[in-house]
Protein 1
Amino acid sequence: GTGVVSGVAAGTVNIIYTLPTTCAAVTPMTVNPTPAAITGVSVVCTGQTTTLTDGSAGGAWSSSNTSLATVVAGTGVVTGVATGNVTITYTLNPGSCIATFAMTVNQTPPAISGSSNLCIGVPTPLSDGIGGGTWTSSNIALATIVAGTGVATGVAVGNPVITYTLPAGCFATLLTTVNNQPAAITGTATVCVGLTTTLSDGSAGGTWSSSNTGLATVVAGTGVVTGVATGTPNIIYTLPGGCTSIQQVTVNPQPAAVTGTA
């Protein structure tokens, strides 16, 4: 009664329109195969890829909006470009029969900023340029991180991965290195102008430095501090991994020379 034709199986068929007088008009039609349903993950993050598949060979992939997601025509590899909803289509040739797949593109957070070198027992703030995410550590035996703030603290030497994940599931990662923290600095922390004091640290292999060489200098390899001018500079002992111990030193004035008959 309507002339609406539905394909059932691939092949060639005649569609016939017959009047009550039994006179008829005939048109041949070709029924082409419809590709199988597309399979794969329906969510992709911007800048990342996912692969879709179709069980029917010989087709080509396309995207309804390449400003949101692109797809490699011959492979089904989808790359997220910008947040939004997009339809990925698989078209068989000949016949141009299609299968479609709705996808959502979610935002990938920016790269994590902050030092990738962590020190045992020392809180180190990390940050990401987009809010609303959660921080996690791949191994809390090596480093912990506060989920809501991104403050990481080294626990043991190793290479944990810090991850920042947005509610939609897209994430950014940072490979970190947890280094040993040097021991506390020992020795007399006062020195007179022009005189020396020797500081030491129980951790070998480090280098000494002064926060203000106008107040006190220190020999990098020995820890011998020389007072230069009155003040309270910090003397720093740094291990190769960048972890430090700090000791504030007080530089006192040297009295003037004694005068009188000797």
Protein 2
Amino acid sequence: MEATRTAEQGPLAGVRVVDLSTVVVGPACTLALADHGAEVIKIEAPDGDLMRQLGGGARHRGMTGKFMNFNRNKRSVCVDLKTEGGRAVLRRLLEGADVFVTNMRTSALDKLGLDWESLRAVNPRLIHCLVLAFGRKGRYAGRPAYDTVIQSASGVAGAFQASGGEPRFVPFVMTDHITGQIAAQAIGFALYRRTRTGVGESIEVPMFETMAAFVMREHMGNLTFDPPIGPVGDARILNADNRPVPTQDGYIAISPNTDAQAFAFFEAIGRPELKTDPRFCSVAARTANSLDYYSLRASALRGKTSAEWLEILERIDVPAMRYNTLESLLDDPHLEDAGFVSRVDHPSEGAIRQIGLPNAFSGGNRPQIRPAPRLGEDTIEVLRECGFGQDEIDAALRDRVVHGVKREERQ
């Protein structure tokens, strides 16, 4: 099957991705590819992706809201890789694919014959993207991990402690999101190189190293120099008062960083003399005295309501925004203007809300959101499109090598 690319289908239209990943980090990567037009074939075991059972409630088994948010614009093919027939089906799908994404351990991939060396022999144009917990060069290679394990190991939790609190986790699977996006980015780079070389390549994206790089690029600072010229960490960011600022009736976020912004802020709070205060008269001075600067900011904002401050700060062009809770975020007026959330009818789940694609391409975005699939609902269609004859499909279903239902049998 050869997909046809048009501008209106998104920049990755015509790229076929075989997705053998579960939970969040791999599906976050392939969601980015799918949302930008790639055809993503999600390979699932007979029990389905674990996320079908995690992440909150569901109207029907296997269709949690979290699963649907990470797996829209994909097609589900249910294959039993514990059988030789199932492994043969997957290898055949990979023969015609552009990209293979997986977060399986390398030992399991080797046993299944899904390692890079084996697959490049049958498809030299394939881009093989392996998302790992830990890179294969280090001593942690092969260990299992989830998001919280990586947050702990990579210094994310430690950054909370350094800012004056207890070690804790960011309350969403940040490392999975970030690593998934980095993997999608790396695939885009590899696809571009393939347009020049004609050959694919292997990509390794380790969660631990990826997040360690994120944390330390932010906080290495003084340790960049050898020997170090000061303590580790950006003191301004690690300041315990670097958080939403209390007002008379709630919170706002405010960030007057440039001299023009800071001086306008001093005028707004009735403290123009601070413009010449040696602690606050320059970016460098305010950075060196961030504890005092944040304390000043916090005490000043308590005198007015959030709405009053936001009106003042907008007028003087100081960056500031309302504080949103998880409940209020989806009702943010800007997000409503942008069409961030749409209401659609899912074939099996009824009315649902979908998050839109935040970025836009002048050449066209993917025009429609394909609802997240039920387990194995696309098995038969995909096999037909990829050259399997009806006798082969019937035999695979009979032998329980694959699982799926005919279109006319779907409810």
